[in-house]
Amino acid sequence: MSVGIVSAGRVGTALGEALDRVGHVVFGCSAVSDASLARARTRLPDAAVLPAAEVAARSELLVLAVPDAELPALVQGLARTGAVSPGTLVLHTSGANGVGVLAPLAGNGVVTMAVHPAMTFSGKPEDTERLSSACFGITAADEIGFAIAQSLVLEIGGEPVGVREDARTLYHAALAHGSNHLVTVVNDALDALRTALADTELTGQQPVESRPGGVAERVLAPLLSAALDNVLRSGPAALTGPVARGDADMVDAHLQALTALDDDLAAGYRALSLRSAQRTGATHIVDRLRRQS
């Protein structure tokens, strides 16, 4: 198919590149920022950079890959100008939105689909490779739309997963909680670990730098990998450490050490310890943490 991308952000570029690799023709994309223009030139070199309305008018498959908050206004604008031709396949990549946001474009044979890759994007070429191992949350207005969306996902090597229209926000919240908050937790842990591993006369270690691949990262990486593997295999039973052992005094000691370093970091630890204690049924830890808050 003739594919148009609005816009050449991290997701749009990766999806456009993936579709191009399986034989579709990405003829054009919209790009405004310097970063988007650079991505379009390097990763979609055969695609012309065009206004969004022109991309829409010439597309057999129109991919709307803009941020969640920008999608409704974009759709309204395309509908108002009549830019989308009858019979066009239109999909958006927003996780939080279902197919209802595309309703202004529906009709005249236009097929609308919500196709969200459950993946994090860095803006680098490896994003495209990751799509072949990703699941895609699909919502469509009817069986035809779902079948088309499913086929497109399978074509680029992904796994299609149906998501109800009324469950899109919960679906998106779950993904954000699992991935985005993981990044925050790991960064907090690295900050504390760098301080703990700081230079001392006894160890003779050099100051621990805040950089990718540093000592703190090397210490934490295998532990994180094992923990993630364990929880995906074993669920709540994978939890270890003082909360799982019911050691409330050690949790208190951790909180004292973290508070001395950073009150906000300690508050995050307290909140997650409380949630972990609720999952393990450690009611004495739950009660103690609630009294402290």
TrEMBL record:
Putative oxidoreductase/dehydrogenase Rossmann-like domain location: 1-117
TM spans (from-to): none
SUPFAM superfamilies named in the record: 6-phosphogluconate dehydrogenase C-terminal domain-like (SSF48179), NAD(P)-binding Rossmann-fold domains (SSF51735)
Pfam families: DUF2520, Rossmann-like
Domain of life of the source: Bacteria
Domain DUF2520: 135-275
Protein name: DUF2520 domain-containing protein
